[in-house]
Design goal:
The chain is of the alpha/beta class. Helix content is 32%, strand content 24%. The protein has 19 helices and 32 strands. The strands form ten sheets. A seven-stranded mixed β-sheet has the order 5-4-17-16-18-19-20, with helices on both faces. Strand 31, helix 17 and strand 32 (579-581) form a beta-alpha-beta unit. Helix 13 (338-347) packs across helix 14 (374-384). The radius of gyration is 24 Å and the shape is globular. The N and C termini lie far apart (53 Å). The model has no long low-confidence stretch (mean pLDDT 96).
Amino acid sequence: MTRCADYHQDYRQACEDPETFWQTQADELAWHTRPTRALTIDEQGLGQWFADGRLNTAWLALDAHVAAGRGTQDAIIYDSPVIGVKRRISYAELTDEVSHCAGMLRTLGVSKGDRVIIYMPMVPEAVVGMLACARLGAVHCVVFGGFAAHELAVRIDDAQARVILTASCGIEVDRLIHYKPLVDAAIAKASQTIEHCVVLQRPQCEATLQEGRDIDWKAAQAAASPADAVPVLATDPLYVLYTSGTTGKPKGVVRDHGGHAVAMRYSMKAVYDANPGDVFWAASDVGWVVGHSYIVYGPLLAGCTSVLYEGKPVRTPDAGAFWRVCAEYGVKMLFSAPTAFRAIRKEDPDAKLSRQYDLSKLERLYLAGERLDPPTWQWLVEHFRLPVIDHWWQTETGWAIAANPAGYGLQSPKQGSATWPMPGFQVSVLDDEGKAVPSGVQGNIALRLPLPPGCLQGIWGNPARFREGYLRHFPGYYQSGDAGMIDSDGYLFIMGRTDDIINVAGHRLSTGEMEEVLGAHAAVAECAVIGVADELKGELPLGLVVLKNGVQIEEKQLSSELISLVRNEIGALACFQGALVVKRLPKTRSGKILRRVMRQIANGEPYSVPSTIDDPECLPELAERLETRRFAAAG
Ligand code: COA
Ligand code: AMP
C-alpha cells in the first residue's frame, strides 16, 4: 500500500482538488472497470463517487488477495470465549465459503439489488453472509442482535427484504438468546413477506424450522455451487445500515460500493497505519457501523487479519479478556468504545490482569462511539503506555471524520480532542444561523459538501428525509448533529449531540423512539425521555411521565411496566431505567418540552431557565424528583 505523504498537503489537496486526490486513492484498488472520473456533483451539490467505475467489493476483499498470493494468510480469527471455540479462517477458505454462500442465496432467488436482512450473533457466518450478498451485488441490512422483534420487523418492512439470514441463538456471557422465536415474531409482525429464512443451527440450541420457508444454512450452503462475483457500478448500494434518528422510525443509511471501498482502503492506511498481514481488532459488533467498516470491509480490503470476538470485555471470563486476545493473536491495533474500557477499569483498576499477557505487538489503542472521558483516557495512557487515539465518526460517515492520523505520523494528542479532520472532511463550526464561529467557540459541527467517499449516499427509500435531516438547516453543509469546537491549533473537540439522540454503552439510541413506546401505555398522557449520566455506560435513558386524568397507578408498578415495554419493543440494549411520575413537564410557550434543562437538573449540572418557559412553577417539583433519584442512584 502506498505510504501517506504529508497530512497538510493531502488535506489541502482533498479540499481543493478532490478529483485528483481521490482518483489517486482509487488507483490502489483493482477495479473491474477503472473510473474515468472521481467526483460527479448533482444539482443539489451532492457528490457521487467514481460513477462510471465497476467493481465488486467482496472480490476485492477476498479473491484479489488470493490471486496476489495471500490465500493461506488468516483473514478472520474467530475467538468465542462464550462457547470456547477458536478458529482461523484463511483468505482462500473465506473466499470459498463466501462464494458457496452466495451460490446458496442465488438459488433462493437473491440477485443484484435485492435486500437481505442479517440478524446474527458474532460468528464467522455473519461475515460470510455480508460478503456473500456483496458478491452478488445484493444489499445487506445487518440488524444488531440485541434489538427486539418489533425493531427487526420495522427494518424488514423498510428494506422490503425477502430473505433473512439468522442463527438459532446468540450467547450473552452465559445466557442463550434464542434468535429464532424473535425472528419468527418479526416475520409475523412485518407487512413484507419473507420468503426464506436461512438458519445457522448452533450446537448450543436447535431452532425449529418452518417447512417451506426456513432453510438449514449449513446444508444449503454445502449443496450450493459457488457463485462468481458480480461487477456492479461504484454507485450501486453495498449495504443499508439502520441507525437511530430523532423519531421512532430508524434511518437506513445507504453505502455505495466504490466510494466505500476507496474510503476503507485509504482509512486503513491514513487513520490506522495498517498494512497487509497486520492483525487488526475492532472489538465491536457486526451490527454497528464499526463492525461493518473495521471488522469486515476495512481490514479485509487492506489484506489484514481481522479478529472476530464473540464475548464481552468483562465476565468472559474476566477483565483480562481483551489483553488475552491481543497477546494470543499479536493484535497490532485495538479499537473499541470507551465504555468497554470503563468496564475493564472498574473490575481491574490497576490493570493487573493485563500483566499476565505479552502485549509487545500492540501498538495503538483506538476509541470511538462516544466521548472519551478523561479518566478513561488517563487510565489507558498510564497503564499501557501506548498512543490512545480518540477518533470521531458516525454511522453516516462510515469512517473517521477526525482522528490522530497514524498513517501520516501521530500528532501530540490533546485530552478531549479527536485531533484533526481527515483529508476529505471539511469541518466547520457554525452558529444556529449558519455563520462560522471563531476558534475556541462552541457551535454546530457541519461538514462542507461534497462529503468524501464512503459517506452515506442517502436514506433508504426516503430522499426527502436525507435532505430534511442533514442538508436543509445549513445550506451547502451536512449537519452532523454534534456540537463542538475547533481550537487555534485546528484540534477538534466533540461536546455531544444537539438532538434527541443518546449514547448508551456506545450504542446510539433515540429518546424520541422510547417516548413513542412510553406514550403507548394506557396510563401515560405525556412523557419525555432524557439521557442521564452513568459512570459505566456514559448515558442511561430515564422517563418522566404525566398520568392521564383519573388514572391511579403506583409509580413503581408503572415504571416496571414501562421497562418491560421498552425491552419488548426496542430491546434490552436500551437499558431503560424506568420512569418518574410528575405533575407537569416543563415546556416553552410554544409547547416544546425542555429536555435539556431536565437533563442538566438530573445530572446536577448548572442550568438556566429559558425566558420562554410556560410554567416555571413545575420546575421545583421536577428538580426535587430528579435530585432524589440521582442521590439514590449514586448510592
Ligand atoms: N444480543 C442480545 N442481547 C444483547 C446483545 C446482543 N448482541 N448485546 C447486548 N444485549 C443485551 C444484554 O444481554 C443486556 O441484557 P440484560 O439487561 O437482560 O442483561 C442488555 O442488552 C445490555 O447489554 P450491554 O450494554 O452489553 O450491558 P452489559 O452490562 O452486559 O455490558 C459493557 C456492559 C460495557 C461491557 C458492554 O455494554 C460493552 O461491551 N459495550 C461496548 C459496546 C460496543 O462495543 N459498542 C460499539 C461501538 S464501537
Ligand atoms: P454512531 O452513528 O452509532 O457511530 O454514533 C455516532 C455518534 O456517536 C456521533 O454523532 C457522536 O455523538 C458520538 N461519537 C462517536 N465518536 C465519538 C467521539 N470520538 N467523541 C465523541 N462522540 C463520539
